[in-house]
C-alpha cells in the first residue's frame, strides 16, 4: 500500500485567467470564478489524459520497498528532494543527491541498494514539465483552451461530455503509453 500526496502544489496554472477570458471573448471580470474553475479542471483533465504533471510541484510517496527499484508516481521526474526508510522504529535518511534514478516502461524509479526489501520508504521529489507556463508545450495549452471553451459553452448541459476530438488530437502525442 502506498501513500502519495502533494507537498507543494503548482505555483501557477499553465493558462492565466486573462488568457482564458480572451480566448472565450469575455470581459475579464465576467464569470471570473467560473473561468478559474474551468482552468483548474482543464489542467487536471490534461494531466490525467497524458499521465504527466504540467506545472512542477513537490510530491511525497510512502510505500514498501519491493526490490532494487523504488517506483515513483507522477511524471516527469525533475529531481529528488529527500529519501528515507524505516528500520524498526528508526528513520534512516538517505543522501538524495547520490541516489541513481532512471525510467523503465514509462515509470520513473530510484535505486535503493541499501534499503531492505519490505522496509517502509519515504521519498520527496519534484515532478512536472515546466516551472511555469513557458515550460508547457503549446499543444497541451491549446488543448486546455479548447476544453475550457467547450466546458464554458456546455456549462448548462446535463451530464458529462467526452473530451472533444480536437482536444484529444492535441494531447495524444504527449499521452503516457504503458506496455
Write a brief structural summary:
This protein is of the alpha+beta class and 179 residues long. Helices cover 28% and strands 28% of the residues.
**How is the main sheet built?**
5 strands, antiparallel
What portion of residues belong to β-strands? 25-35%
Order of helices and strands: EHHEEEEEEEHH
Which quaternary structure do these chains form? single chain
Mean pLDDT: 91
Structural class: alpha+beta
| Overall strand count | 8
List the uncertain runs: none
Strand order of the largest sheet: 1-2-8-4-5
Number of helices: 4
Amount of helix: 25-40%
Shape: elongated
From the N-terminal CA to the C-terminal CA, the straight-line distance is 22 Å
Plain-language structure description:
With 179 residues, the protein is an alpha+beta fold. It is 28% helix and 28% strand. It contains four helices and eight strands. Helix 3 runs antiparallel to helix 4. 25% of the residues are buried. The mean pLDDT is 91.
List the helices and strands and how they pair.
Elements: E1 3-8, H1 17-24, H2 32-50, E2 57-64, E3 69-71, E4 77-87, E5 90-94, E6 101-104, E7 107-111, E8 120-127, H3 138-153, H4 165-171
Antiparallel strand pairs: 1-2, 2-8, 3-7, 4-5, 4-8, 6-7
Helix pairs in contact: 2-3, 3-4
